[in-house]
Amino acid sequence: MEGGGGGRRITVSPRPCSGRRVVAKKRGRGWAGFDGFVNSVKKLQRREISSKRDRAFTMTDAQERFRNIRLQEEYDTHDPKGHCSMVLPFLRKRSKIIEIVAARDIVFALAQSGVCAAFSRETNQRICFLNVTADEVIRSLFYNKNNDSLITVSVYASDNFSSLKCRSTRIEYIRRGKPDAGFALFESESLKWPGFVEFDDVNGKVLTYSAQDSIYKVFDLKNYTMLYSISDKDVKEIKIR
Q1: Residue among 161, 117, 134 at smallest CA distance from 23
Q2: Sheet containing 215-220: order of strands
Q3: CA nearest to 147, candidates 125, 169, 114, 118
Q4: Would the pTM count as exceeding 0.70?
Q5: Which residues of the chain are modeled with pLDDT < 50?
Q6: Does 194 sit behind a cis peptide bond, omega within 30 degrees of 0 on the bond before it?
């Protein structure tokens, strides 16, 4: 799904596209991290770190561009005591930050382990964790500016991490430390692998693909109303312009 020029796509194995897509992982022995993501990042690094003649100029230009940037605040998503004693063991381990989303006065940081925390820009303190249940692993975040809410895309241990679940939570609720005040989205859709959900901020649309019945559906990002569906097993890709 491609936006009109401002969207971007994120998959488990990212590729340079313009939408924002989250794909369900193939069912296996359980959650094993973002191996595909890491491998793709390494490929991009090898491509960028090359022996081209203008490499030195590019590095100098980058240093010049960012030389006035200074560290203002530090946030830490890791909680040594564990934000919940019942969470999965790997959720309690420190891991890399893979996604940062800013929404008004709140900064959201998603760790590779699947833990997501919200921080206040005003107090520079952690507000809360967004993992509502003990077995929830958050895969991706999307700030919906149309209704000032945060959409989390998660998988769960109870489902063997095989199906994507979406939840919308108003920023105001998160600001109050109530991440469980949100509501589920697209409950009628079966987003098991190779199903996916894709957010197009530019065109204000959400595209889902239910692999179980080979149906693509387009929803309005403002109120999540289904606009239309496309049922055809021969359709391989859909793009919105």
Answers
A1: 161
A2: 20-23, 196-200, 205-210, 215-220, 226-231
A3: 169
A4: yes
A5: 1-18, 30-34, 86
A6: yes
